[in-house]
User: Which sequence fits this backbone?
């Protein structure tokens, strides 16, 4: 089997049909990197939530694009979901409970939500990788070492800028 690609770049319309397309592409990218079933679930959940936020909240009543990038860098999988929309602002006129970013934070190793210089929002998600695959092979009770020997009781860094 060959080496997985180092990057994935997609530009999708900010419409509901784009969410499963991005999710499938990111799942395939992560699987090629050696992700196990649990980590693939995390990638699918996090990417779906980030994409859905962009589709629902970014463009109000106009058309727009969502940019999805995935990259393997120094044994880490980075997934970026960006838009050129109105930015991260509360919107009482939009559906949802506002739980998407919280869900993402529960399944990634690190995340940041940043305002883009030319407008819009970017959600940056990082998943730690090990030798040839993801290191968090299974959920272990707090403080118990995972298969890679690290405790799963470690702080996760998250920021909103």
Assistant:
């Amino acid at each position: 089997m060959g080496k997985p690609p180092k990057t994935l770049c997609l530009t999708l319309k900010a419409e509901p049909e784009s969410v499963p397309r991005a999710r499938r592409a990111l799942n395939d990218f992560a699987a090629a990197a050696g992700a196990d079933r649990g980590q693939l679930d995390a990638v699918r959940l996090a990417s779906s939530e980030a994409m859905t936020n962009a589709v629902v909240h970014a463009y109000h009543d106009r058309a727009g694009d969502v940019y999805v990038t995935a990259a393997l860098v120094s044994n880490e999988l980075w997934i970026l979901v960006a838009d050129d929309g109105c930015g991260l602002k509360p919107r009482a006129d939009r559906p949802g409970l506002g739980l998407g970013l919280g869900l993402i934070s529960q399944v990634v190793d690190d995340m940041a939500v940043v305002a883009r210089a030319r407008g819009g929002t970017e959600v940056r998600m990082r998943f730690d990788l090990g030798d040839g695959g993801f290191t968090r092979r299974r959920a272990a009770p707090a403080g118990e070492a995972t298969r890679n020997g690290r405790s799963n009781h470690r702080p996760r860094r998250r920021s909103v800028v």
